[in-house]
Design brief:
With about 70 residues, this protein is mostly helical. It has one domain: Up-down Bundle (F1FO ATP Synthase). The protein has 2 helices and no strands. The two termini are about 20 Å apart.
């Protein structure tokens, strides 16, 4: 039988895994867009960084909630 801290650790791991996949897709899409329109690189990079920060914030929130559930 699994314990609550074990389940919380799995939840935190899944949150981090999802964030890593999401940020990877954001980066790949941004590089593809820059390759298509190099003159828009500055705007694309700005949007990419903002989107990555939002994904990272959501992942951090999920990890904190998982750890609070464990405690």
């Amino acid at each position: 039988m699994t314990t609550i801290p074990g389940i919380a650790a799995i939840g935190a791991g899944l949150a981090v895994l999802g964030a890593g996949i999401g940020i990877g897709r954001i980066g790949a899409s941004a590089l593809e867009a820059i390759a298509r329109q190099p003159e828009a690189a500055g705007k694309i990079q700005t949007v990419m960084i903002i989107a990555a920060a939002l994904v990272e914030g959501a992942a951090l929130f999920a990890v904190v909630v998982s750890l609070l559930v464990a405690g």
